[in-house]
Amino acid sequence: MTKTSPAATTRTPQDGPAVAFTGAVKAFGPVRAVDGLDLEITAGETVALLGRNGAGKSTALSLLLGLNEPDAGSVRLFGQSPARAVAAGRVGAMLQEGRQVPRVTVRELVGFVARTYPAPMPVARALDLAGIAALAGRRVDKLSGGQMQRVRFAVALAGDPALVVLDEPTAALDVEARHAFWDSMRAYARSGHTVLFSTHYLEEADAHADRIVVIDRGRTVADGTGEQLRRAAGGSLVAFDLAGRPTEGLTELPGVLALEVRGDRARLRTEDSDATVVALAALGAIRGLEVAPASLDDAFLALTSAPAARLETV
Predict the structure, then answer these.
(1) Less Cβ around it within 10 Å: N or C end of the chain?
(2) Are strands 72-76 and 31-41 parallel, antiparallel or unpaired?
(3) What does the pLDDT look like over 184-235, one tens digit per residue?
């Protein structure tokens, strides 16, 4: 599937990056949900935000949208505070939670939201981009879960924002609805807008984002394309049957970065699979040998299972 590409965006001299976290900190009691977060997103980029539950994603998004203030550091959107950027209609958001509004149609809901912005998108265009023009006359409280998710997307677009923030936008959608949603999102991004989305579907991040940012323990631990993250976390997996062989010394083999044992099978994450296989052959440990490139799932687990230490991607 083709990824979106950053588009040229007209910017005035006072504009900064679309998103800029600089040493942002937010604590709740003794817990630092965001702990010195640094992140910059250029206007026109589509960026995926990944992290385990409790990694700080939701708190980071709340800071970005001006729902919370950082205890230290700063958050700027297009060179402005989040509150000013939101008030100016430069930011739209599609959040996970939201109650259905009874007895109003889709067109009425999107039109109502659009009228709260200084320079809104025409309602018909918002409905078309979200792929719900055919639902314009339907009551919102009569829609399916998948249809309601796309209504939330239309609402996020209603102000014609330069930046749209999507929090788990395809949660609970079936496969067909997920594909339809991403078709809509790519159409929006192609017009030069900036998109930041969080997701638990790693294949979505790989397919639809220009960059993937991984947050863990409130900090950025990796930032790059899916391929760069796979390389940074160890490019290959070498698996073989232990057949009763002890695991001592396996992590000392050439190229090996980590060892995982599943039943009687060992999985070695390695940055040099050739050297690792040669060393295993010298030990006679090649029963059921399998070599495969690391998946994005493997990279994500590697990045978030050890104490936080930023991995630079090149």
Answers:
(1) C
(2) unpaired
(3) 888 889 888 999 999 888 889 999 999 999 999 999 999 999 888 877 766 7
Tell me which amino acid residue 83 is.
Answer: A
Kindly state whether residues 182 and 281 are assigned to the same domain.
no
Do 209 and 238 lie in one domain? The reply is: no
The backbone region for 3, taken as left when phi is positive above 0, alpha when psi lies in -120 to 50, beta otherwise, is: beta
Q: Are residues 30 and 179 in the same domain?
A: yes
* Number of separate domains in the chain: 2
The amino acid that residue 309 corresponds to is: A
Tell me how many degrees the CA angle 234-236-238 measures, rounded to the nearest 5. 125
**96/206 same-domain check:** yes
Domain encompassing residue 281: 234-293
* Contact present, 190 and 176 (Cβ < 8 Å): no
Q: What is the pTM of this model?
A: 0.78
Residues with Cβ < 8 Å from 9, sequence gap 6 or more? 43, 44, 162, 192, 194
Q: What is the pLDDT of residues 96-121, one digit of tens each?
A: 766 677 889 999 999 999 999 999 99
